[in-house]
User: Fold this.
Amino acid sequence: MTDLLTALAGVVDKSGLLTGDDIGRRYTDTRGHGPAGTPAFVVRPTSTQEVSGILKICFHAGRAVVPQGGMTGLVGGGAPGEGEVVLSLERMNAVEGIDDSGRTMTAEAGVVLETAQSVADDAGFMMPVDLGARGSATLGGLISTNAGGNRVIRYGMMRQSVLGLEAVLADGTILTSMNRMLKNNAGYDLKQLFIGSEGTLGIVTRCVLRLAPKPLSTCTALVGMDKFESVLSYLSLLDTKLGGGLGAFEVMWSKYYDFVRERCPNLKPPLTPDHQFYVITEFLGADPDGDADKFENLLETASSQNLIQDGVVAQSESDREDLWAIREGAGEGFRTLSPMFTYDVSMPILTMDDFGRRAEADIEGAFPGATTLILGHLGDGNLHAVISVGDGSADAHKKVNDILYGIIRDLGGSVSAEHGIGTEKRDYLNWSRTDAEVEVMRMLKRTLDPKGLLNPGKVI
Amino acid sequence: MTDLLTALAGVVDKSGLLTGDDIGRRYTDTRGHGPAGTPAFVVRPTSTQEVSGILKICFHAGRAVVPQGGMTGLVGGGAPGEGEVVLSLERMNAVEGIDDSGRTMTAEAGVVLETAQSVADDAGFMMPVDLGARGSATLGGLISTNAGGNRVIRYGMMRQSVLGLEAVLADGTILTSMNRMLKNNAGYDLKQLFIGSEGTLGIVTRCVLRLAPKPLSTCTALVGMDKFESVLSYLSLLDTKLGGGLGAFEVMWSKYYDFVRERCPNLKPPLTPDHQFYVITEFLGADPDGDADKFENLLETASSQNLIQDGVVAQSESDREDLWAIREGAGEGFRTLSPMFTYDVSMPILTMDDFGRRAEADIEGAFPGATTLILGHLGDGNLHAVISVGDGSADAHKKVNDILYGIIRDLGGSVSAEHGIGTEKRDYLNWSRTDAEVEVMRMLKRTLDPKGLLNPGKVI
Assistant:
């Protein structure tokens, strides 16, 4: 232990190595997602070379290393095990540059999303990925979880933004694949290995991200609909007529909308509670003079086709924020729910109505009086469920997991759409993946991390 | 040999196994890209199970297997070695279905691109990827080379279209990852291993592709520009103002345009030959009534900013085809060039002017009187070069390779943007990739194909 500490102290500066009481809650607080042990040390490198030095030492010593970004993950992917070494990328937080003609940003892994968004904005571009944890989540964390968020239907997941990256392998080998081009077919695309693998195959230290042109207009509406078929037709209408400009298509099932009306007094849901589905759609356009009319005309078309029964269009940025708050700001309501289990699943869009009905029926069958709230990124095939049942025991949680993931398995869906597997969903990985798939994952893990030292116990 | 033949005959039907003189030129014609030997057999399975059966037999016999699609590759990736077993996917050519709400197509690997495009079109959607070889290239080939083409700036490479796939590993293991959702973070994204790895890690047998909404309008223009900086500004203008609708941004250097005027009498280049760059831009829109005006207004803006010196806008589909023919239909001219070496490279867009100048100067310095024609998908960071020098000897070819790829190495570019590595570029892979990258590629190859039987000698 002392040898290890001495060796690590030779790699990072004094403030780069924390032990004992100096290890703050930042490094162990998983916000309820997975148990965390007490790390032996926290190492805070300032360069890829230092990360390499740390991993070499740990590789030779056979010590497990847990990489950490902003600790906003929702599946326990950053939770340290007892006595493990935490490697925090928080000090690698420089945006290295913007290439205007290539529309790229080069940055270190510890850059906070909001900072990257601001730098991109100042340069006249937009970071494609956005999500609620923007104030803490880091680029490295977004890459290692292949984060999604609210604009996936338009810009894809984080994977689609990553042109290049630098990662350090378990033995300290630095793998620099800082490609800046949209096209590069020179051999295997190695960066894909590190995107979405939650730090179990290598630690991402730097990246090249593709930026998007900044939208010049934003139009947002909330509509109420009575039939699931109408939701699908409305999605298809916007998808076709907005020329790729559909930026969000978020659906709230009626029970969620009712819940917001009853439990979130600070929110202002403007529509009556008598619809089956409530849909927030956002059009990101490039014609500030004509886009609002275009958007309202489409809503009128949808209304004349009897797809939507009621609706409001945001007339100001403040209106827009109020509409999004119905979808994203229900935290105060959730705090009245205890226990509360949350889910992030994906499935073919056509099966979502079935999913909603079965989830409500099966959970209320097993737990009379249960609360089952469903909402999410319908346009991406991704729903979230918030479920409050029973006594909050591990048994109850497992029973709800088995019900929910059982339906997902039947529908050919995935137990994780955008949050990852971490420790929380590890037991259910094979409900969405075949034995052959899991075995190939294990083969990759053994190949790249033969001693099993990188983020052990996560994913597989 | 007889044992192997007997075993294979037990897996496929009579027309699924070709030997001797029954092996047609289809299986050995690489159209000048890489030498081809005479295959021992050609096996033509009709299902994933048959592919698995074939690979199991070859694995136990230690026989090399070369997967083949439409044989339109440009780097020798499908060329059989002497005595190897060719596995042609040509009989696995069924489109299995379209999911309207998920906007996906499920298909077998041997489906020809044009067929897939037509099925998508009939269903009201568009296949995102398009390229000249659409009449022969297959989905499996497009996936295994991560094909690009003319619409990458809008829709990405083939990788971006693949939601799921099924592949068979070297030992016959069937890996079914037929994900249909935009989001699926359940463990490592294994499909990425098989996209762009040219059949060296597994053989793709089926796929799920994401389709695009069909554009409702197409506007095309050819403009002439005098300065490279203007090309960049024009790209930025369209990128910003077309709201994601920029479908193509193709640039031809002046020597290429002059070449077309002189050597391609069937083409009709409408602009005078006194510009430095000729740019074809295409706007794929969703507003048939307003898009033409919007596009012409943008061209006027570019003209008033002195970015473009001359230009024509297609007024009909026939006009549009004539403009694209200048970019794509120079085959008759190329046939007057002998020898002819062709290149597919990528680099940061900002460095392209430098690339063009250095390529012309260095090649003409080494080979006085050389022809150096440059054109390509500038918006994607991807250029092609057509070079005619010397006597066409292997020495001359190597010298041109060394010059071109040397410049690319200096500029931080890639020796392959969209064609792959195959056999043709294998010796230059490490001009674009670090030793660490190549070693990780080898690790993956050893892990997934421990006997080195899948498409041996390709890529690495």
